[in-house]
Amino acid sequence: MNDAQLQSYYDQAPSARRMVLVSVGLVMMLCSLALSSVNIAVPNIAEDLQASAMAVSWIPVAMLWGNVVFLLPIGRLADMVGRKRMFVTGMVLFILSSLCILLPQSINSLLLIRVAQGISSSMVYGTSMAIIGVVYANSNRGQALGIGASSVYFGLTLGPLVGGWLTEHWGWASVFWAPIPVLVLCLVVLFVFVKGDWKSSVKAQFDWQGSLIFAAWVTAFMLGLSRLTDWRFALLAVFGLLLLVAFVWHQSKVESPLLRLSALRANRIFNRSLLSAFFIYGSSFSMIFLLSLYLQYIHNLSPSEAGQIILIQTLIMMVLAPITGRLSDRFEPRVLSTFGCLLFVMGYAMLFRLDMNTSLHYVMLALVLLGLGFGFFSSPNNNAAIGSVPADKLSIAAALLNLARTMGNMVSSAIVMTLFSVTMGGAAITAEIYPQLLLVIKITMGLSVCYAFIAAVFSYRRGTIH
């Protein structure tokens, strides 16, 4: 089938569209679950592998690094070689890397597995929204993207609940291998039922030099942020920013860049959507990690009990995201997403007031506000961004959206690592340093309030699309 025939096929076959949405959404959910489920197992991993607080703080960051470094090149490659092919390749690599957990482990080998999971998940995240966007191009795209976004957030926040249950009953290693059977089933469904590969008809060369510069600046900047109090790491962060300048210069000179910056600057709706996503996800990722530590260490909850409380946010978001996605097909996305950002501000302001005696009901109320914020922000923001780019650039657009999310996550995690380093050093988390843990949480939630407010400004200023 050519592109027109393929689009006509999906336009006239609702069951085929649903098959794509279910299979792609399930894979996105499982990759997101893998990212966050390990957070709840951190205390058990630290005890079993005799790892310090500083070492285990790298567990979420390692996967994020692999994801961020490869997202932009993967998005460009997917437009060239085919989105389905890249998506399936990512699934296979994710399964193989997760199986490596069955080998004897140390904290260093565990971090390598997380990097491999990050690289393979970049192939999934860099193509998934583009696949959904093109399949539903002429039929409730906002709602479909909302369901896709819900699957990501459902995985992120279902992770602590599933991870807690698996850790208690099967050990922390099961968090890695348990999703594999479902991923294999999704792989079969994609091969058998999903038609099309969706690649650009325009021939272009891949920018390998730009990819290497991009990987270098992300790595240097992230490592530098992780220990800013050390002057050598601070210099590394500055070097990373210089490499970013070099990347921007290179992209403006090369004939077939990873990212055509002039087009990005000209597309106000898209670039404001990216900035909003960066700040919102920068505010949210470390919240789940820190809140799981707070509930387990200070409130003495089990991993599964902590996961159940954190799940409140996701359940609310799951209900709202498809609804607000459909609303954004009819009403201005900036109004819906800006309202979501302001709900984030309120939720983080509540979490800023956490102390040793804060009731669980107070925590739950804050999570309700954050769930409402996610529900109103995610789908309208994605719909506005995806709808503002041409069809042959959907993969790179989806990759940029996910890059904004993961870069926000990475910068937030690096700041938390710096706070851990300054307040706790290499010590394990014990009752004696609970006040330091609370201090890290307070500082992080205060920063999150600022991030969410900045996101609200960018969201509102993106302009109208209807």
Defining traits:
globular; Growth Hormone, Chain: A; single chain
Into how many domains do the coordinates divide?
2
CATH class of the largest domain: Mainly Alpha
Bin the helical content.
over 70%
Tell me which oligomeric state these chains represent: single chain
Quote the distance from N terminus to C terminus.
32 Å
Total helical segments: 19
Output the CATH homologous superfamily of the largest domain: MFS general substrate transporter like domains
Radius of gyration (CA) equals: 21 Å
**Broad structural category:** mainly alpha
Uncertain runs are: none
Broad shape? globular
What's the helix-strand series? Answer: HHHHHHHHHHHHHHHHHHH
Give a short overview.
With 466 residues, the chain is mostly helical.
